[in-house]
Amino acid sequence: MKEIESLWDEVRELSLGTSSTTIDHLPSPPSPLHFLRNYVSPNKPCIISNAITHWPALFLWPNVSYLSHSLCHSSVSLHLTPHGRADSLVPSTPTHDSLCFASANVQRVPFPRALDCVLNSQPGKFVAYLQQQNDCFRTEYSAALGSDCDAHIGWATEALGCLPEAVNLWIGNHFSETSFHKDHYENLYAVVSGKKHFLLLPPTDVHRLYIRNYPAAQYSYSEEDGEFKLEMEDPVRYVPWCSVNPYPSPEAKESEMAKFPLYFDGPKPFECTVNAGEVLYL
Amino acid sequence: MKEIESLWDEVRELSLGTSSTTIDHLPSPPSPLHFLRNYVSPNKPCIISNAITHWPALFLWPNVSYLSHSLCHSSVSLHLTPHGRADSLVPSTPTHDSLCFASANVQRVPFPRALDCVLNSQPGKFVAYLQQQNDCFRTEYSAALGSDCDAHIGWATEALGCLPEAVNLWIGNHFSETSFHKDHYENLYAVVSGKKHFLLLPPTDVHRLYIRNYPAAQYSYSEEDGEFKLEMEDPVRYVPWCSVNPYPSPEAKESEMAKFPLYFDGPKPFECTVNAGEVLYL
């Protein structure tokens, strides 16, 4: 165990070159070589300012009617959950004695209605999130919005030696919360409107996350009575997922810290907020 | 075990992008970005031609009297073994029933004498090798030979973002043989005269090498009677070393293959020969 603990520190010191929990913030786009050498190669995240400030999207997309008008004939996938936590652990029974891995209710709806749901979300009633990881920007949005942004980010394309495999557009609100997960892709996360807060951990911290198997469940949603029901998959399917919630409620905090000491007693995660106009490499 | 075997294949396919056992050969030096993206980042070795052909060393150093004359006042570390295998496993007893990790006999001698020993090596009598990994070129040789080559390799320095941590000059002959080992450095191996043959394995193949602990021993050499004696270190010190000899003698071959099936039955190592004027990145 001591060896693994010193691995956490060594990765932070040797590979990421830092024992602080903030990440590098570049005031302007790096050269492809600088980006590859100092961030991609050592798997080190960074925030880049002034990389997308020339995108018309930055002043066009915050305008709700512009988006609704441009996409009035499009259908998109709307993800609905009761509280804004999709792909996360929730109690599978009313007695709270076991957890399951709950996926959102997904509906195909016209874009203007979907955007309406995002804007009028209310935890306890429903929280809506437009999110897909299937290259949805290029397949679903780009006919209408393609001219509002660049098709790729030049210096990153040159550094990585290939165009993006997928480009996704996500539209959420401040209730949307994604639990700890891993993405095995090089990722450039551009925020066009609003901001997003990240907690990041290096891959060598995997042991601190208490990955366990949870039975999969899915929310169903009835529009008539506005009720969510959580339905366990049948036959049962197990999903390995991180047990740690980094922001436990005040009343759960003590028991969560006791259950997951490797996380709560270990080094703090890297923390950053990406604001509109900024790009996070991770 | 199946999982580890498929890891060997996956690393070859995904990371190295090849199922062949030859490595890329670049006809001329790559740009820093190309080198970093296609070789350093994916940990992929390559041979580069025409990278050092402008070094005067290429025509100066093969000339024995030039070297001896330039370094007539220098002392260097001469490594002596009976057969050319330093830092390798040899029988620790005359009955061959156990192995030890044998280091060369090291002597500080005037360079001209050392070079003489290298050139007049004879397995069974002695094999000499000038080798050190302590930045010996810059500390011991560069006053005399520094103007014969570049102080660093520009495109690699730019790609890696730093000057070499160590520059070493090794002078051996065709008897010198180095057993499987790992170097945890980015390495540019330039051959100025002669050639060197490499067998390379990706780090994920470590399980195929049967790393075990062997007691350390050191050769002593008596100039008077020209005899080597193998002396076990006292107190005993154990060195973890690779058990596999990739080139077993014909009579030992069958038993070696039976003892180390993960190596002999698994994917072949990457194989290459670096000729004078070429650089191997590894």
From TrEMBL, chains A, B:
Name the UniProt record assigns to this protein: Uncharacterized protein
Task: Name the source organism.
Answer: Manihot esculenta (Cassava)
